[in-house]
Amino acid sequence: MCGRRRCCCRGGGSTRPCVTACRCPGRCPTTCEGRSGRPSSALEQVPERPLVPSRSCPARWGRSRPMSRSPARKRRRDPTVGQPRPGGCRREGAPMTSAPSQSPLAEVERRVQDRAKELDLDLAGDTAERQLARLIDEEVARWSDDYKRGLRPYDLADAELVRERAWRNLAGYGPLEPLLADEDVWEVMINAPDQVFVKRHRGVSGYHEEVFHDDEHVVRTLTKILDDATQSHRKLDPAEGLQDAQLDTGARLHIVHRDVGRDGHLLVNIRKFTGVAFRHLGELVDRDMLSSAAARFLRACARARLSTVFAGAPGAGKTTLLSCTAAELDPSLRVVVAEEVFEADVPLPNVASMQTRAARPDRAEVDLRRLVAGFLRMAPDVAIVGEVRDREALPLLLTLSSGVKGFTTIHAGSARQALTRLRFIAQLADTSSELPLSALNSLVSEAIDIVVHSARRRGEVKVTEILAVEDLQAGAQATNFTVTPLFTRERWDGALVWSGELPSRAVFALEEAGHDPRELLEHGARVAGRGPAP
Question: Which residues are in the Bacterial type II secretion system protein E domain (predicted)?
Fold first, then answer.
């Protein structure tokens, strides 16, 4: 480094300090030494580091710099690009018609859009789809003709693939359309226009081959998806920063806008509810998600109106368990549901479902805490909160301890962690006053009766444990809750079996509802081939 703004070996007599590395290793033999007779003082002060090729230009040599933390992106071959023309990229004297930096698919779409504007094509009209398909066919055919005339450096690898993808990008949901239709895909993640990942139930998870052209393509696709989501009533609004919406198929959409993400790209997650919608606990038994004994017990708990928390990691089937358990409630009960995005499906006649609303200049925000705080004004017999994550935790605990029973879900690594995390969230969310730990311990233990934990491994979802919450035995100051393990799964491929213990507090509620707890659990143990613990 020569100590001047421009490298002396490139010429120039600037005396300002150099901010870039130069070609000459160690010393600059022409100007720096020629003018001063010695290396520049700036060079003497620079610590020695090995010379490496510049990342932006391998021909330039400079001092090594720390590598970026961003993972290297795998360069993918464009499947729409065919083999280059042998003997040259174009006919002599013929102008090149394709921009080298633009993929064939993107250029075909651009030309179709330009022609649609020239023709003043109304894409909402009755004949719009037929006219748009005709324009795509014409532009694909024109590309092949230009290639034969020597005006294109390469032909289309698969003309039908170009037609199909161009149609999706212009009239459908682009790269997301086949993923939304694929029942094997349950999660779609977009980190950048060229970084689309999927999670599958049975197939291989990872990169998705079909990607977006640029950020504008992502924005255009999401705008159309939200416009078509008639039940969501949400619009793409960068001012919100974070947005949640539900598609008409039931899929949940989460959007992180560009000014919030690190690299300036939209971050998108789509959680799908794939396969056959589960309606009853018996269907979960058929899928080996839980045992028949556990299903009988949860059915009895729902009839006895025991408040239940469903815990697990994201994608562990918590909402599915909640909906199937809620389906076992007495149809005469009134159920009130509050969610950020409509997910829970309660197939009962008297159900009032609400979702949050983002703030806008013409309307106030309605958050989940406000919805939960208004539960008691809606005369609920059962209160359901889709997921507890923040300030809604304390109002929910207060509601469940007031005589109204209910269900909710929470992210936790185990059934015991669900209780401690619920207490922790309630403690953090209550900023207006400082609730003592003893009060929160009593509140959680009184409000929650049953905790069900589930997990996902190797594409399978299973219930791993069920426990009953008891009255605090060690006093309100104790940090651990008093619980009775009811069902456990010792190994992932093992059975979910009864522990042989009876819950003290839940027994009374089950008996009041007309169930014999011991007969209920022992019957399930006999069916599973295991007797009660001695």
Answer: 171-430
